[in-house]
Amino acid sequence: MTQQENTTESKKSLNFIEKIVQQDLVEGKNGGRLQTRFPPEPNGYLHIGHAKAIVMDFGIAEKFGGLCYLRMDDTNPQKEDLEYVRAIEEDIQWLGYKWGKVCYASDYFQDLWDFAEWCILTGKAYVDEQSSEEIAAQKGTPTQAGKNSPYRDRPATESLKLFREMNSGCVEPGKMILRAKIDMASPNMHFRDPIMYRVLNLPHWRTGTKWNAYPMYDFTHGQSDYLEGVTHSICTLEFVPHRELYDLFVTWIKEWKGDDGDINDNRPRQFEFNKLNLNYTLMSKRNLLILTNEGVVNGWDDPRMPTLCGIRRRGYSPQAILNFIDKIGYTTFDALNDIKLMEAACREDLNQRALRVSAVVDPVKLVIDNYPEDLVEEMTAINNPEDEDSGTHIIRFSRELYIERDDFMEDGGKKFMRLGPGKEVRLKNGYIIKCDEDPTKCIEKDAAGNIICIHATYDPESRSGMPGADRKIKGKTLHWVSTNHCVPCEVRDYSCLWTCENPRDAIKQYEKDHGVRGIDAMRPFLNPDSLKINKNAFIEEWASTLPVFTYLQFQRIGYYNVDKDSTPECPVFNRTVGLRDTK
RNA sequence: UGUCCCAUGGUGUAAUUGGCAACACGUCAGGUUUUGGUUCUGUAAUUUAAGGUUCGAGUCCUUAUGGGACAACCA
Question: Can you name the CATH fold of A355-491+530-578?
Answer without folding.
Answer: Ribosomal Protein L25; Chain P (2.40.240)
